[in-house]
Amino acid sequence: MFCTGIENSVPTINNGKTRVDEMEVCGHYKHWRTDFDLLEDMGIPYVRYGPPIHTTFLGPGKYDWEFADMTFADLRRRDITPIVDLCHFGVPDWIGNFQNTDFPELFADYASAFAERFPWVQLYTPVNEMFICATFSARIGWWNEQMHGDKPFVTALKNIVKANVLAMQCILKRRANAIFIQSESSEYFHAENPAAIGPAEVLNSMRFLSLDLNYGRRVDSEMYEYLFDNGMTKEEYHFFLGNRIKQHCILGNDYYWTNEHRVSADGTSVASGEVFGYTEITRQYYDRYRLPVMHTETNLIEGPNGDEAVQWLWKEWASVLRLRNDGIPTVGFTWYSLTDQVDWDCALREQRGTVNPLGLYDLDRNIRAVGKAYKQLIRDWRDVLPASSVCLVVPIVPPSHYNIMEEREVERHQRVVNLRPTTTQSNPQAG
């Protein structure tokens, strides 16, 4: 699945007073038709995309679908398959933030309403980068609740992951063959000296928490104590262990130059740059969860030479091919995002208006060098990979085939009904 994304990040900063809306600052609300034209011109059949939650989800049972109706109808008309991103780093003002224990059920209702309104949508990322969202909001205090500490982090994490799990359950009730592609940051923490080995090991266990809970995997013993020391209850933990949705999931993982860290003896860390790289870190996640893999985010700034992002694209693509050739079922690749982004150089903590040249296109919708390279890469590989694949084929129903699929399902159901014994028809009390 060759993919890109149109980012719908909406965290709040300044103690909840200011909303950072990437769709607004990147011009998508004005240029969404043009952006979809660019997808077609690139030959990209998949897009990570979702409605802005803060203007769509107005209250319990209250929704404004106007923008979603327009955009999703156009994606369907173009036969572009969305991977629907329902919650990207923020919640509506009336919910508050990720400390709100009502959030999981409220979000599940929102996901249910979306799936009801857009039944042809099959692929979802209910909550984007759960670990990063909890970390930035409640552990290092950058977004939303802007809290610091282990207890608010655990509260945010369990609320976010529970919201994701409940949303998947609700969507499956309305689309039984829905597929969930987690987009989670893949991290690694390197000890810079012997005294830092212990802190690095703790952080390397912590990085798995969101996916362990999401997939119903028992956490490491050290993390078990950490969760319970910081507010998780036995009932909450067993809710996650009782989750059986893993078989509907693809392990989507994100990798950037900043995803590896050098840890000091006091537990603080700084970005180390690429040390192991995507291939090795993805092996660690795959060995833990044994799910099909999709590279769901990467990018690099186009620097002074003009080819920095192009070289990173080829490097990440080579890593994906290596995983596939080694027998790890790798089913997709994503350059994120379609256009340049704004203020990600400060992690959206301030509204500086700084344009980050990370996209396939700039904000005037002119193609960048990496856009040209990705377009050629897709042309070169899209017909080769299915024929040479040793991996599974993901059972995706394109938007244009939804009605056909629905009709076939009705026919299949009718055949099952016709095959049932008819003896009970003469006896209303039977069976």
UniProtKB/TrEMBL annotation:
Spans traversing the lipid bilayer: none
Taxonomic lineage from the root: Bacteria, Pseudomonadati, Pseudomonadota, Alphaproteobacteria, Sphingomonadales
Gene3D superfamilies the record matches: Glycosidases (3.20.20.80)
InterPro entries: GH, Glyco_hydro_1, Glycosyl_Hydrolase_39
Pfam family, one: Glyco_hydro_1
A biological-process GO annotation: carbohydrate metabolic process
One GO MF term attached to the UniProt entry: hydrolase activity, hydrolyzing O-glycosyl compounds
Organism: Sphingomonas changbaiensis NBRC 104936
Protein name: Glycoside hydrolase
Highest taxon in the source lineage: Bacteria
